Amino acid sequence: ALPPLKLLQLRAAEATAIASMLNEQYSKRPQAERALKPVEVRADAATNTLVVSAHPDLFEEIKTFVTDLN
Question: Which of 5, 8, 11, 45 has the greatest number of beta carbons closer than 10 A?
């Protein structure tokens, strides 16, 4: 089961591009790690928001990245 969905609002970057980049980055991890710590990032272009479902450790990583972008 995927972790709960969380929203991250983007101010300076385009959500669609960032979601794509994050998904690509996290999909490069070994299969075992992907199964243990799943990550799914979608974009809501209308509100420029990332919809993130990620293991808590990785969510913090993603949140820090987005905070740095903003």
Answer: 8
> CB–CB of 45/22 below 8 Å?
no
Reported as type and span, the H/E element at residue 38 is: none
Stated pTM of the model: 0.89
Tally Cβ neighbours within 10 Å of residue 2: 10
Q: Are 43 and 49 in contact (CB under 8 A)?
A: yes
Collapse the DSSP code of 48 into the 3-class scheme (helix H, G, I; strand E, B; otherwise coil) and give the result: coil
CA 30 vs CA 4, 35, 37: distances in Å: 22, 9, 11
- The Cα–Cα gap between 59 and 3 comes to 10
